[in-house]
Fold this protein.
Amino acid sequence: MSAQVLLGLRLLWHDKLRLLSMSASVAVGVVIIFVELGFLWGILDAQALVATLARGQFLVMNKTRADLHHWDKIPAAELTLFNGVPGVAKVMPVYEDHYGLTDPDGGRTVDSHRIRRVILYAFSPIDLPLAVGDPAPMSAALKMADSFVFDRWSRPIYGHIVPGMDVELDKVPLQVSGLATMGPDIVNDGNVFMSDTEWLKRRPDAQPIMGVVRLAPGADVEEVRQRLLASAPSDVTVMTPQEARARENNSTLKAAPIGLLFALGMVAGLVIGTINCYQVLYTEVSDHLGQYATVKAMGFSDSFLNGVILTQALVLSGTGFATGLLFSIFADAFVAWLTRLPIQVHLESGSLVLLAVIASCVLAGWMAVRRVEAADPAALY
Amino acid sequence: MDALPLARSCVAVAAANLLQHRLRLVAALSGIAVALLLLLLQISVLEAARTKVTALYDDFNFDIAILPDIYQYLMSVGTINSVDLEIARSTGDVADTFGLNVENVHWMELPSKHMTYNLLIGIDDPGSFVRDPDIRAGWAQLRSPHAILADAYSQKSVGPISPGTDAQIGDTRVHIVGQFKLGLFFYAEGATIARNVNFYGFTGGDPSLISIGLVRLKPGVSPDKARADLIKALPSNTLVLTRDELLHDERAYFLSTKPVGIMLYISMIIASLVGAAIIVQVLSTEVSNRMGEYAMFKAMGADIPFVYGIGMAQAGLLGLGGLVPAIVIGALILSFVALRTHLDTFVGPSLMMTMLAISLTLSVAAGAAVIRRVQRADPAELF
């Protein structure tokens, strides 16, 4: 380890409480970036949840359904035809509609309403097209007559709903047969799930909103896609869950200024992180100005001292990132609990923030170096 | 020393202190400005969203709304029977009623056949209910069964919406005869208004059902009494809310239940804390670095208010110095947001005063947290 790195580390390590406070200053910027990035990422993840949770290689939808939150249907008969396409193991229809769920507590927690809009998904209990819980208990719960499964991640406006309870769905009392895990988004507050036979018993004319296509083992994805497209009517589109997700992200960002708003928040976090790092390095240099001047008087060059400062900047970026990351994990969990959105630190977002923090601390170090260069041995006495 | 000369002296010394290290001052002001900018953007967008979610209701004069009991918000309505409006009139409290219909429909641009989603609004004869002058003027133009008014604030993806343009709602060809301004981009890419008699033709809905009934009360009738009378008279599948209750519920739902409102509130709290933390940090370093000078002032017999005043003036100058660029940059960004979304985001006098109050509060709090350390300045330690 070179002398300048060693000196930089020792200067920081000398006062551990101070190192902690300096790291916390840098961490403030890290937390802001993580929180704002988490908001944006969480909204995009939630909006595209149906695509993400699909247990298949393709989604078949009505072409006019430009995003995943409109209810353009596809005739069930058309979906059945896809079962005959070579390479397709199964096409699983998913029905969706919105219903009024009566708060079983009779509570009016937010406003005057007792009946809350909830999204109902219906599908086969044998082949679950969506990954919304452990398949075996989910299947068993869906098979129960006159019942539905409640999404435990729904917002609390629905009241306290537990399995075994009788709850009115569009004023028809039904039993809650189990709990699933899906979560709301920025449009919808909660979900319930029902078997397709139960659903079609109540809505005989209902048509699916999409079909989840599962391929036969060994089938070539691209070849099957071409076959599906060739056999699809002109009003039907075929896309992978990843493609549907990308389209949804694009549609969400276009529809609302949230991208701009949270991107500005991230830039703000970056600027604040850089400035805080500069402030702490400046203070560090000011406090050790005498020592730096002494080192200079001993004949060490400015570039040696610059190396010391940049080492400290890099160390602070690491400790600041670690502190910020730790805090952000808790902060994201808290916001996720408040909003019921999938807000969390991802590996991708973590790597992105780490790079941004290193860059900002190096910039701050470069700015603070000027203060060291001004250290004058003659001013020591 | 009198208050004014004392303040002047404090500000002069504080300004000189801050200006000594220019780069550091710029960095500190940038940090504070960014935190205040973040706060300003969040406050403005939150306020604009609060206003926008009730924009359609704001276009109407009414005292009470009759809604289906499954009503959640404007785009999740359900229906009530139009007979309910007759029942409402029979209570004796009601001067007039108005049927308002809303439905999300497919809009097809012609001749490209590009499809988008559209909020179709059906209205009765405006009478004394419609406030918006464009809608009142446009009503007279809605003579043909295919005539509609288009929202001038619709998104570009909707295609041309100038009067004289033809398009398609569902399978029915429509003709745009006028425009109004609404801009409910979070419900649909565009919005249109049709007469209620034609609304059902576009949607295929049952003409005996309406989405929302608006009620105007006779002069002197209290909304609370009328609400109680209506609840007694109307079937149990209806929800009766006064205008204030409806607007409050609509806003509360969007800002307290929906995640974007919660996220904006959290961002505002974080931005406030960060702004205060930066001021504390800068002042703290400043006080530490200038302990000798403060001790010298004390040795020279300077009053404590003068010594403290310097610290508070520095805090105030930092807060105000950060506020100016935050407002300038914020105004530019908010104009861009308003241009893109038609949200009423702008830096007006009210927002400026709010930001000034926040900046000064943060500065005073940060200053108060730090300047107590000045007390420790001891002239005996100078030499």
Summary: Chain B is about 55% helix and 20% strand. Chain B has a mean pLDDT of 88.
